[in-house]
Design a protein that fits this description.
The complex is a heterodimer of chains A (312) and B (304).
Chain A (H helix, E strand, L loop, with lengths): L6 H14 L1 H24 L5 E2 L10 E2 L3 H7 L2 H21 L1 H11 L5 H11 L6 H11 L5 H8 L15 H13 L4 H8 L4 H9 L4 H12 L1 H13 L6 H7 L5 H4 L2 H11 L3 H29 L7
Chain B lengths: L18 H32 L3 H6 L12 H8 L1 H32 L7 H13 L4 H10 L17 H12 L3 H9 L4 H12 L1 H17 L2 H6 L8 H17 L4 H44 L2
Classes of the chains: A mainly alpha (312), B mainly alpha (304).
Chain lengths: 312, 304
């Protein structure tokens, strides 16, 4: 039997070694201190969801109220409206924005390397790097009464003098499709990287067997991307409750607010504009917990579909 | 150290020119061209509109080329002194933010890349927790407030100083630096700080450049920090200034005032020119970005 050293000796050893590498420690510890201040203190700050915190209190001193804030949230009509809007916009995004990058990636992959391919890639990644404020300004321009959209509609014989941004019924579509427009090209990169690893002999073999190009895509390229597609799907579904605050703040106006208020912007308005810190934190915390649950559930479902292999 | 170049393209042998294949290629190129136009045309429309005269803007009867071009919109944008201060804030927060962020993350990554670091499992666990959990908007706001960072320039730099994602990417890169280099330096009596600055930083330039560029784009584009924590207009960056212009003109048009129509066309011109001015820096570094971003994404994703 190995005789264990007494605990105080081991501790002493540890601290000696720790002291010897003080240079290395002096490089790690500032980062750790940073994380404690900027990441862990706010995580602790989540307790105000269970308290009645006002600006004059400190977080520690505020009174505990248990689940009271959450109970009020459940009965809050405006909260539910923001949930409906969030889910509608995310749902449309998932519907159009999930498959499109896969299709475009396959199409780019099928191109021969050359100038055309490079130009297409360069252009399609570009919108990703524009901020939502820039894109918001652009959208407002395109959809304004004298904007590009109305001009194009006129070419097809539809004459309107409408400012589409003021039409609440179109907001979900504008929010979702503008997001798809911005990110579809960028979303191809990961798929292209995975496809570049497919063994070329598969395609040669398929060609021998007389498979056309479409058939090759369907029977080789797509099955080879199954796990990356599942992974992205899990992440997309678990993000259904996420809302884009940048986008909402720039596109929201008094006419479309009923359809454009999402969970994030509701938290922002209640917490930072009305000072209802505890209540807004409860909304945010509740929604994050639901997102985690969604992640677990979608992972379980895709695992079943993927022959019991988890991609997470 | 040298990594095989990612070509992201299919081997040539597959692309034979039989009749079926030709049709496939043709349809494929046509659809991709359409997709590209769908991106280019709207952007072109905004850029060219910013050069339109106010009469042409008021009529708005063009998609590709207005009846009359003018630089008036840019003149009125640049005659406003607040745009210059916003530009200055944007540039300085981006430059300072990028330098501080890259250096801070690299130092931590160097320490964590050493297996011998005492407490390493604890540090790494804390880091991973920060990747998955956060306090969210309100608790973070309360922290920033109690640190006295509201309405301070440093709110742009300090809360964005650190990201564990970036630490992991750099850590993976540092692990590939040949151990022999470090050992010989150690025999010569070099300290960790010296090894870091003299060996690791020069050898890791591509990785550092990738991190710097990602963070640079984020810093330039970030408007939320200003929106949440800054009410002093003298500290507004360009993105926040643009946001203000947009919201004001939107408020006017959503109230449907008749007087607003006149305000609408001048403010529209200013809005368009500001949009272009705000995007120009991104477009300027875009070729550089493109060279780095794919490798950056792969650094994080492939190496586990």
């Amino acid at each position: 039997m190995v005789k264990k050293e007494p605990i105080n000796r081991r501790l002493k050893n540890y601290w000696e070694k720790f002291g010897k590498q003080w240079q290395l420690q002096s490089m790690a510890i500032p980062g750790v201190v940073y994380m404690i201040i900027f990441n862990f203190i706010p995580i602790y700050g989540l307790v105000i969801a269970f308290k009645n915190y006002t600006v004059i209190d400190s977080i520690g001193n505020a009174d505990w109220v248990g689940w009271q804030n959450f109970e009020i949230v459940m009965k809050d009509r405006y909260f539910w409206q923001s949930v409906v809007n969030t889910l509608a916009i995310s749902g449309l995004k998932l519907l159009f924005g999930f498959v499109l990058p896969i299709i475009i990636a396959i199409m780019i992959y099928e191109l021969r390397a050359g100038v055309f391919k490079r130009v297409i890639q360069t252009i399609s990644y570009l919108p990703h790097f524009l901020s939502w404020i820039i894109l918001g300004g652009m959208l407002i321009t395109w959809f304004s009464t004298t904007g590009m959209i109305n001009q194009l509609l006129q070419m097809f014989g539809i004459v309107t003098q409408q400012n589409h941004m003021l039409d609440a019924n179109k907001y979900w579509w504008i929010a979702a499709l503008s997001d798809v427009w911005k990110e579809a090209g960028w979303g191809t990169i990961l798929y292209l990287a995975v496809m570049s690893k497919i063994d070329p002999t598969y395609y040669e073999a398929a060609k021998m067997d007389g498979a056309g190009r479409l058939r090759q895509v369907w029977s080789i390229t797509i099955p080879m991307m199954k796990s990356i597609i599942s992974l992205n799907f899990i992440l997309a579904v678990s993000g259904l409750f996420n809302s884009n605050l940048d986008q909402t703040l720039v596109l929201m106006n008094s006419q479309n607010q009923q359809k454009s208020e999402v969970i994030n912007s509701y938290v922002y308005r209640l917490g930072l504009q009305q000072g209802d810190f505890s209540y807004a934190t409860a909304v945010g915390l509740g929604v994050s917990i639901i997102s985690v649950l969604l992640l677990v559930v979608t992972n379980l479902v895709t695992k079943k579909l993927n022959d019991n292999k988890s991609v997470l | 150290m040298k990594k095989p170049k990612l070509t992201l393209s299919k081997p040539k042998s597959n692309v034979v020119q039989d009749k079926d294949s030709k049709l496939f290629n043709f349809v494929n190129m046509l659809l991709l061209l359409l997709f590209t136009l769908l991106i280019v045309v709207p952007i072109w429309n905004v850029v060219i509109s910013s050069f339109a005269s106010s009469e042409a803007l008021a009529k708005g009867d063009f998609v590709f080329l207005p009846a009359e071009l003018s630089l008036d919109n840019y003149r009125s944008v640049f005659s406003d002194t607040t745009i210059w201060s916003a530009l200055w804030i944007s540039v300085s927060k981006t430059v300072l933010g990028v330098l501080a962020h890259t250096l801070f993350c690299a130092i931590m990554a160097y320490a964590l890349s050493k297996q011998s670091l005492k407490g390493r499992p604890l540090y790494a666990t804390l880091g991973i927790i920060t990747m998955f959990f956060s306090g969210g908007m309100i608790p973070t706001y309360l922290l920033i407030k109690s640190l006295g960072l509201l309405n301070s320039f440093w709110v742009y730099v300090l809360p964005a100083l650190f990201s564990y994602y970036d630490v992991i990417i750099l850590m993976n890169f540092f692990r590939d630096v040949p151990a022999s280099l470090e050992e010989s330096a150690k025999i010569d009596g070099a300290s960790d700080w010296k090894i870091f600055t003299r060996i690791f930083v020069p050898l890791s330039k591509p990785a550092l450049a990738t991190i710097a560029m990602y963070h640079g784009v984020w810093q330039w584009n970030d408007f939320m920090t200003a929106k949440l924590y800054v009410t002093n207009k003298a500290l507004y960056p360009l993105q926040m200034k643009l946001y203000e212009i947009i919201v004001q003109s939107q408020a006017a048009s959503s109230q449907g005032l008749t007087a607003a129509v006149a305000i609408d066309t001048t403010s529209k011109g200013i809005q368009l020119a500001t949009i272009v001015v705000t995007s120009v820096p991104i477009l300027l570094i875009y070729p550089l970005l493109q060279r780095h971003f794919i490798s950056g994404m792969m650094l994080g994703a492939v190496k586990e």
